[in-house]
Amino acid sequence: MTSVRSAAATTLPPIRAALARSKRESIKRELESCQMLAGIWCHGLNVRQLQSIRASLPSSSKLLVAKNSLVEKAIEGTKWEVLKPCAKGMNAWLFVHSDEIPPAIKPYRDFQKEWKLALNDFTGAVYEGKLYGPDDFQALETMPTRMESYRFLLGCLQSPAVSLLGLLQTKTQEDGSAEAAGVDADKN
Fold first, then answer.
1. What are phi and psi of 92, to 5 degrees?
2. How far apart are CA 50 and CA 94, in angstroms?
3. What would the 3-class secondary structure string for 97-148 be?
4. Are 102 and 143 in contact (CB under 8 A)?
5. CA–CA distance, 132 with 56 (Å, rounded to integer)
């Protein structure tokens, strides 16, 4: 006859392994369409605070709390592997599924200021294959959004056209003034 303890001990490891495998597969699915992956040191944050952060994120972003070992296994052999050194301590992982990076980072920065959590900072991020350390986040936060880039590009394209149009209008007005002066001279 087996005891309850030995029966539980034999069934729990397969269940734990299945849960870990499921979580790892979930992380891999998130990575498939991910544009940026960032680690956030979440030591001391409670469930309510994490839910508050999740609620404030844009719909293109997702915050997961997962064991570092599961994240390390999921990013192994991918472009995200350079983030492995940041997988230390208690982390939450921010998956950004659009190239709108500053709007994805801003809710956490606002949360940090509101709760005065200077120590709970980003541990690192990977964007476009480059590793950004905690000190490099200013570059990500000040990066122009897609709409700002489009406005700049449109301004660059529009500026020569506006200058050309102004030049043509001036030339047309000069030609019209010269013709009008010539007609007035013929009448006299």
1. -110, 150
2. 12
3. CCCCHHHHHHHHHHHHHHHCCCCCCEEEEEECCEEECHHHHHHHHCCCCHHH
4. yes
5. 23
User: Coil, helix or strand for 34?
Assistant: coil
- 8-state DSSP, 85: G
91-96: strand order across its sheet: 61-65, 91-96, 36-41, 122-127, 130-132
Q: Kindly report, residue by residue over 66-111, the tens digit of the pLDDT.
A: 999 999 999 999 999 999 999 999 999 999 999 899 999 999 999 9
Residue with tokens 């208690």: 90
Name the token pair of 33.
Answer: 């369409």
Indicate whether 2 pLDDT > 70.
no
Condensed to tens digits (0 to 9), the pLDDT of residues 109-165 reads: 999 999 888 888 999 999 999 999 999 999 999 998 878 878 888 888 887 877 877
H or E stretch including 72?
helix 68-75
Is-contact 11 74, C-beta < 8 A? no
Q: Token digits for 126?
A: 């990977």
Residue with tokens 């944050």: 45
Q: What is the pLDDT of residues 31-58, one digit of tens each?
A: 999 999 999 999 989 999 999 999 999 9
What gap in Å lies between CA 89 and CA 83, rounded to an integer?
A: 13
